[in-house]
Amino acid sequence: MRNTREMSTLEERVTKTTIGLSKLLLGMGAIGVILLLGLPARAQDTPETLFKGKCGMCHGPDGAGKTVMGEKLKIPDLQSADVQKKTDTDLKAIIIKGKNKMPGYETKLSKEQIDGLVAHVRDLAKKH
């Protein structure tokens, strides 16, 4: 009788352990799904949002460079004719490699994000 009772207790422990592990795996899977769903949202940031987050501190939200850092570093107005006459290739090179005190974003931004920033710089001039 004792063997039957011991087997029953062992079965209960195995069942509880299995249920516990199942809950743990389910929870980890749910967290993984949440994280994966969050990635596309970041990858699909609009160029305007990306500009505000990466460039706005120095260039300002309108690209005029009228910020504390922009004025200190004498950043050119991105709406100006001097900047707007640059080719897309020139603007991409500046974003990728950086210029003067501006850091390069070659390893931080995708090609699509860089293209979006160039288009946004062009749009800045049209808005003002």
Structural notes for this entry:
The protein contains seven helices and no strands. It has helices spanning 2-43, 47-54, 56-59, 68-72, 81-84, 88-97, 111-127. The longest helix is centred in the first third of the chain and has 42 residues, at 2-43. With 128 residues, the protein is mostly helical. The protein folds into two domains: 1-44; 47-127, Cytochrome Bc1 Complex, Chain D, domain 2 (Orthogonal Bundle), CATH 1.10.760.
Short description:
It is built from seven helices and no strands. It has 128 residues and is mainly alpha-helical.
Features of this protein?
128 residues, mainly alpha, Cytochrome Bc1 Complex, Chain D, domain 2, 2 domains, 7 helices
Radius of gyration: 27 Å
CATH superfamily of the largest domain: Cytochrome c-like domain
Report the top-level CATH class of the largest domain. Answer: Mainly Alpha
- The H-and-E topology, N to C, reads as HHHHHHH
Helix content estimate: over 70%
- Low-confidence segments: 33-41
Count of structural domains = 2
**Roughly how many Å apart are the termini?**
89 Å
Shape: rod-shaped
Q: Taking all residues together, what is the mean pLDDT?
A: 84
The largest β sheet comes out as: none
> What name does the CATH topology of the largest domain carry?
Cytochrome Bc1 Complex, Chain D, domain 2
The count of β-strands is 0
CATH architectural label of the largest domain: Orthogonal Bundle
Helix/strand-derived category reads mainly alpha
Q: Quaternary arrangement of the chains shown?
A: single chain
Count of alpha and pi helical runs: 7
Strand content: under 5%
